[in-house]
Design goal:
Blueprint lengths: L1 E6 L12 E5 L8 E4 L6 H9 L6 E5 L5 H4 L1 H14 L7 E6 L3 H11 L2 H4 L6 E6 L4 E4 L2 E7 L8 E6 L5 E4 L10 H4 L4 E5 L7 H4 L9 H10 L4 E5 L9 H9 L6 E3 L6 E3 L1
Parallel strand pairs: 3-4, 4-5, 5-6, 10-11, 11-12, 12-13
Antiparallel strand pairs: 1-2, 1-14, 2-3, 7-8, 8-9, 9-10
Length: about 270
């Protein structure tokens, strides 16, 4: 299996794309993708194109929460895939998962901005799947358990995916890991955790005011939970090409495992 980082930036980035990613099992027919968040606009289409992901390969989308940089791109996915359905060139159904309170908003956004011909597929081949904390669904043939991350800003869900080889991949959303989610995250082989900036630059970027964490805190979490692989995302962009080295240098002071600081379009083998 592989994970493709379509975007790695926080809400206000301009040189990179907002955080979103796809997971695929290349052993499956047609190489289907599980897409997590869609960023803030039609840039999701560009990122998929650059990553070599055809829209016909996407059948499962999970929207973590209502913030624009995670949500708005889903309207473009509905529009483009819905058009493919109308033209009879899309095989199967599209399932869009989100917490139950977000489902009406996704439907309303689509109905206000996408043609009636496309929207008539919502509830049919475009399925809006409401989630409650602890719900489990089969995606790419793997059990995926969704959970409330206990956000202090807006209701938000993360997930834990049991991979075919027995590994567990956990995504803690775009806020600091909450100990209330320990039963979901424990014994994970992989943890995806936001890191807004370096701890050494917290005074500059003020992550705590936005309820985000730094590289140091994310690494301390993974070290405490004894997670062997940590992926950092939802970051600032000012360090450019130096970001990987800067983040790794700080992170390795607090974390002994494998530390990944991906750029947009990087691929991580799980």
């Amino acid at each position: 299996m592989k994970l493709v980082m379509l975007g790695t930036g926080h809400a206000a980035v301009t040189e990179i794309y907002n955080t979103c990613f796809g997971i695929t099992d290349e052993r499956l027919d047609a190489g289907p993708y599980f897409l997590v968040d869609c960023g803030g606009g039609n840039g999701i289409l560009t990122q998929c194109k650059h990553a070599g992901i055809g829209l016909g390969q996407i059948h499962d989308i999970f929207i973590t929460h209502e913030h624009a940089d995670h949500l708005l791109g889903v309207v473009w996915m509905i529009r483009m895939i819905g058009t493919m359905i109308e033209k009879n060139v899309y095989k199967g159904d599209l399932r869009i998962y989100s917490h139950s309170g977000l489902v009406p908003a996704i439907r309303t956004m689509a109905e206000l901005t996408v043609s009636a011909g496309v929207c008539r597929n919502i509830g049919g081949r475009i399925k809006l799947v409401p989630l409650e904390s602890g719900d489990q669904h089969q995606i790419l043939g793997c059990p995926v358990t969704f959970f409330d991350i206990e956000s202090t800003k807006a209701r938000q869900f993360g997930f834990m995916m049991e991979l075919p080889d027995g590994q567990k991949l956990s995504c803690a959303g775009d806020e600091p890991y909450n100990e209330k989610n320990y039963d979901y995250v424990k014994e994970s082989s992989w943890l995806m955790h936001e890191a807004f900036c370096l701890y050494s630059e917290a005074d500059k970027y003020k992550p705590y005011e936005k309820h985000h964490s730094t590289v140091r805190e994310a690494c301390e979490v993974a070290e405490r939970l004894k997670i062997p692989n940590l992926i950092l995302y939802h970051t600032e962009e000012d360090h450019g090409a130096k970001r990987k080295n800067c983040y790794r240098a700080e992170g390795k002071q607090y974390y002994k495992g494998n530390l990944y600081v991906p750029d947009d379009l990087d691929v991580i083998e799980l």
